[in-house]
Fold these 2 entries.
Entry 1:
Amino acid sequence: MLLNQFLLLAAVLFCIGVYGVLVRKNGMLVLMSVELILNAVNINLVAFGTLTDDVGGAVFALFTIAVAAAEVGIGLAIVLLMYRNRRSIDLSEADLLKG
Amino acid sequence: MFATLAAEAVSTVTTVTNDAAWFLENAWIIPLLPAISFALILFFGKRMPYKGAEIGITAVSVSFILAILTGVAWLDHRDHFELEKYGEEQAIAVSDGAASATDTVAYTARFVAAEAGEGGAHPYVAVQSSTQWLQSGGIEFNAGIMVDGLSVMMLFVVTFISLLVHVYSTDYVGGDRRYTHFFAFLSLFTASMLFFVLSDNILQMIVGWELVGVCSFALIGHWWEEKPNSDAALKAFLTNRVGDVGLLVGMITLFFAAGGGKTFDTIKINEAVVQGGVSHTALVVAAACLTAAVMSKSGQFILHTWLPDAMAGPTPVSALIHAATMVVAGIYMVARLYPVFWEGMQIEGSSINLLATVGAITVVGAGLLAFVQDDIKKVLAYSTVSQLGYMAMALGVGAWTAAVFHLFTHAFFKANLFLGSGSVAHAVHSFDMKKDMGGMRKFMPKTYVTFVIGSLALAGVFPLAGFWSKDEILVNTGGWDLLGGSGAAPGSYTFHFVMGMIGAALTAAYMTRCVYLTFHGEYRGGHAAHDDHGHDHEEDAAHGHHGEPHESGPRILYPLYILSAFSILIGFVNLPPGFLAGSKKDPAGWQERFLHFVEPAGSSYFPAVGHATPSWSLAIVASLVAVAGAGFAYYYYFIRLDRLSKQLGESLVAIPNGITTTNVFARAGHTLLVNKYYFDHLYTGIIAGFTKGPLARAANWINQNVIDGTVNKAGESAVQAGQLVYHKIDQAVVDGAVNLSGRVSDASGEELRAINSGKVQNYAALMFAGAAVLAGAFVILLAL
């Protein structure tokens, strides 16, 4: 079984995603990194589903895709509004909640 | 339906029992209908074409029909009950109960329990259907109905008079500004009274008792814009509160004393008392307290003063509430809880007790007061007080059936008289016999005839209704030893017998005076100021002219005709044995039918009340006494005063009263009567005055100096203690602790604010770090 390879792939994707989320200043790229994290999770779900011969994993992956679509819609809307207000999508500038 | 029931009564026993039982068990519908009507009239009445009157009349008509059917069912049940000893029906009742709703289970269980009980125990004659309302502390609060002869009789009386009064009112209060409101309260009253008479427990009786009191208050004060009317309403309400204290204390005593304690069930209480398991002291207390309740509700001396004032209400209300139904609530309550009085007052074999004496004094005291009243309704009001005195006295001397029978007959002829007086007042717009009436016979011949019939029935003239019931009371006092006619009367109440005789003479005399002043002589009205009536004047326009009174319309006259017919005939339902053909045991005869159907004799919850043998000699003497009273009054008014009036050419009002001007004692007596024995002075002047004056001042002084002084001192000490606590404890210790914690939070917050950079990615990094730590911990825990 190729489970290890899938898990490794997922872990790599996840780490890339986390890196992108934490480091990139560009809002669009952060969103894309979030997609990477989610897809890493999807790979895990499908992989384990196939391993245990359970279609539930694939179904959950589909749900995740649907939720991800919704999430990215909201995310894009936030980025768009941010751009309209500030003429920039640099996340490091958005620090109004500073304590 | 009537025919069907009657036919089945002959053919098959079982079906009839089932059919009849339906009416007996579902009698709760009868009060429910007027209650619904009350709500409907309140919400929709003003929009209806007849302003809500039609709703009330419809509801009461249906209730009336149901009451009659229930009555027929009861007659069947009562006869059948004794015939069959309840062997067969028991089985039917059981299957019936099992099949139908749980409401009927109580009914079934009663028969079963009675059947299974000790040998010889009678099953209950009364049909009780109750359901548990709530349970608290091991005490059951039931809501239910109890249908027996007494309640069936009351159902008939209340619905019948109420229906006639509803019809009468459509004309009498027509055009009134609160016409709809009036009908709403008539409905509410009817519902409350029916609820009261159907109660199967004392708690429900108290509720019904208070409900009718509220309706009475609202209807007496119907024309509350005038101060005397609202005063009268308040007086009625407050006077009744005095007696209600007695009612509550009495009922509470019974609740704890009877049947091993803690039951509200009327039958259980009565049964316990009859079986002798209740302490005599408790019964004495309960009976005395309940007598106080009777004194207020049923207008007995010395709490009668509200009833004449209650005539401030519209006349139909006086007929329905203050003559026929509500004021007999006290009598009904005594009749319902009769064992309590029977044992508590030791009625049997005695010759004096509280209830009988209160009644006897009321009979004569109120009878005398009726002589000095100029207001026709007040004459009738005192007459009602006097007749209620007869009923209370009858119950006091052990004449249960006679009292209830008198209640029954009195309802008809007194309603007849009140409605008759209303008819006259409607024509002359006043109730003052001396100023505004006289000679009304010419203008209102039909009202005159019905009024005279009512008066004759009230005076106890053979063979009208009042004769039979009053005679039965007198014979049952057992005071008729003089001519050896006492028979098997429960006691020997000679004093009460004499008072009853005097009352009979007084009744005949004051009704003669009333009839003379109202209907004979010359018409003295027609002058200005017709405002006493209290009506809106829209209606006067409809009448067209003020000058000459005229006969009332059909909606007023037909109720009078019907009531007059009843006043003549209703006495025949309880003919004494030996009258007409047939023996006492002849079930087809008319003898003592009322006694048979109404008195629960022989049942386990009713004392063994003896019945005196009716005596013809007594009947003749009583009639002669009444005729003598009437004759004296006839001579004085119809002959002497009429002649004087014609000789002097003056109105009789201007002629001085003969005796009172010449004899000092007569004048003193007259003054005493005019001042109503000074009871009103006693209550308002002395008791209320003392309370408002010296007592209030003393209370105020004590309040200001003693109580307030203590309170002030306590307050000052408290302030000092408070200062101490504030400075030493609150400021130093408590606030110190709070401030310290605040400062600590402040400092730590200052340190921690560095984390809150406001940058999303910093937060995300923290979250990932936290997640990584948790995941690491998770892995380590799994590995362990």
Note: The longest helix of chain A spans residues 56-86.
Entry 2:
Amino acid sequence: MKIINALILFFTFIFIYAGCVNSDRRAVVIYSPHGKELLTEFEKRFEEKHPEIDIQWLDMGSQEVYDRIRNEKNNPQADLWWGSPSTLFMKAEKEDLLSEYKPSWSDKVSEYHKSKYDKWYGTFLTPEVIAFNKNVLNKETAPDSFDELLTDNWKGKIVIRNPMASGTMRIIYSSVIENSVKNNGNEEAGFEKLKQLDRNTNSYAADPTQMYLKLSSAETPVTLWNMPDILLQSALYNYPFDYNFLTPSTVVVIDGIALVKNSKNQEDAKLFYEFITSVESMAYQANKFYRIPSRLDIDENLKPEWLKKLTYNEMKIDWNLLSEKESEWMKKWDMDIKGKSKSN
Amino acid sequence: MKKNLFQILSLILIFYFIIGFILFPIYNLSLESFINLNNIILYLSNPNIYEAVLNSLTLSILSVIISLILGVYLAYLVHFYKIKLKSLLTSFLLIPIATPPIIGTVAFLYLVSDNGLMFKFFNNYLSFIKLNPVQGWYAILLIHLYSFYPFFFLFASASLKKLDGNITDASITLGASKFRTFFKIILPFLYPAIVSSSIIVFMASMASFSAPFIFADNSRFLTTEIYNSKINGDIQLSSFLSVILTVLSLVGLYIFTKFRNLNENTNTIKGTVRVLSELSKNKLGILNKLFLSILVLFITLPLLTLLYLSFIPEGALLRNVFNESMTLQNYTKLFSEEGIYKPFLNSFYMALITVIICLFLGTISSLTISGKKSFLNKFIEVFISLPYGIPGTVIAIMLILSFNSFNIFTFSSLIGTFLILPIAYTIRNVPVFTQSVLTGIKNFDTNLNEASYSLGASKIKTFFKITFPLLLPSIINGSLLVFINSMGEFVSTILLYTYNTRTVSIEIYSQLRMYNTGIGAVYGVLLFLIVILTVYLSRKYINERISV
């Protein structure tokens, strides 16, 4: 009995002690889908320069970030929203969830890559690609267009990250519908394509990691994903991944950044905002994290080799239309298409 | 009878809780789900909703059936057969009850999925056996079986202790086979226990989120559909689905309760019971020995997987796991990180706050309910236990709808605050606690209170000197259940947490998402240890202090 009482006391003290260790650093909370590697790195680099500020980040899917910021509208928990397709920032701008802020480099970025009212700015240009397992396929044998993915050759060989929670997948799927509206004047042809893709899809992964694991198996060697993640994951964890750009043209997402409206620590958040979007940081992000910078004033010497050599055809996309209709299209996909063609 | 100040204050608090945190959120949820009637017609013409309903119901019924078979058979074996180390085996069999669902799910993911240890083990060393990874429905059912059979085992074992050995002996002597005796005598005797555990398992399966969330793949379940539509920004659809899920759960609860009442008085036994019987002289056959061994493996393997992975360097699942050497690096890394205690502290404080509120609200409401039968008391009984039929996902949605702006119950927005999590846990756990105390009250001799009054003690004195000490065991049991439920809560937490309020379960999930198998496993192991230690210590405390 004495031992038990001592144990209880011991644990109570540990908890109380740990509860009292409270840093007096000023916290900046960041919601971001950019992944722990990039977030940890910039947390460290920034805190070295500003030890009085504590960077706290939560890594989650873009769609989850947006949903949270909307839920927390009356009591914002995040100061900064770093990363997500511009379509989500456009929606958030309409719903008045973002603060206006003009970064020092506001004129160093194409006008297509920022909000008219300084609510958000583009940081990275992210091309979407067909990624494959290079133990099974190579650049020639792997598919290189969306239409090729729909043929019988790839039936049951494709793994897809659950599109509902993934900004990347939502953009890829919505762009198919947007193209269909543009080229055929209706959505049907686009949904027909997505239906064929669903037929060929072996499984939907609950998170990116599950998707990477499935992609590294021989059963499902093909997926649609973004280029930086594929390069980064293969570099970091020796995943056997390679990719093809989509032909004739590939979707290029604008990844944005914005301050959350009415958040607690806007001033320090701005410091971090400027820090991670400086020329040095963007060059570093390109070198280490395979991110294509949106800033046009980055010196050629600072750019990594892969970036200098990079060529792709950017698909023309009506981002306003996509931002407006994306939710509706994805809902329709979820309701009418997902898992429906399995039985045939 | 005049009510004193204490009782009036208690009643006010109970009503504040019922109206503000149960009825107001339910009202908001219903309002939101029927806000646009055209959408409802659209939803109802959509086959997916029916698919989700059908899947959730099928999953729940299947979970009840498989857990029933395993749990009751185990209780039978343990009761009637000579088994070495029986008490150790019994504690082993109950481990899954104390395992938070998110830990069970993640452990199974690392064990049986296509990148799991079992799959890799067979591929590496026993490649002549073609083993398929366990996925989708099979995986979900396996996890449900793991988490839910202990309820049947526990309830059935408790009942069997009251079974009169003379009856089974009579059956055997009259020439009935063991098989016949089991189905004609033992099974009917267990009817109330089986119905009670079926209720728990059915409700828990309807509300199950972690397993379908990670394993469901293409299949739709109500809980995951609610989450997905919420994430997609369709609040009306997620509210509508929440209403459907809640109604189905409540209907299920109602039907099962009817079943229970059908057969309430069959088991009254008068006098002493001769527990042992001829049947107890059975020795385990080889098949049953094999069965029990496999079962012990089934219980321990997921936890051993977690333990093993916590000692293996990061990213090991991508390489050949079995060539890696064991290290403590995950533990040292975790403990050297600043703020590592935070999720543990959060979980602990939230569980503690939940227990304290439940302790207060639950005790006074169960005392009120068990008092005089009046409309008021019936009202409290019905509404305080209503949330038992409301799954965690739905509670989170209701809270978001109700408390994300000014309201007359809390005045300011609660979303994003620390308090919202213990509130969510409390709503769901007050019924659990109340049920536990009510069971205690049923066995409580009210004459003792009368005696205390007639000897001149005041109501308050009677409560603290007589009622409370006698109810203490069931109060501790109830608190323990609430504590376990809250420590590892994941379902409503995932919709309500923020950076400052992230809990261990959220940390386990994010590490899974970021593929830190090692650190994730360390969190899992530590949470498991905390829960098991708490259960063990309080059991010990109950046994030593209060011999009942």
Note: The longest helix of chain B spans residues 47-80.
